[in-house]
Here is the input.
Amino acid sequence: MMGPRREAQTALFYEFSLEDHIPQDHLLRSIDRFVDLSSIRAHLADFYSHTGRPSIDPELLIRMLLVGYCFGIRSERRL
Here is the structure.
């Protein structure tokens, strides 16, 4: 099973918004303006299984790897 979650998950204990905490001139906001990964799911759909545990969304995974590259994080665990 691949793709973004269909149902919205509400906060359990507190309200937290990344929009309120990340400055407008932050590096990741600049990258987000220019990187369009919306079609990546269609290209990788054949490589994901429809049975078993849900996999990580490919768009999210590539965005995480970009963040790791930009900030020098070498370990996926540390991401």
Q: What stands out?
A: Residues 58-71 form the longest helix (14 residues).
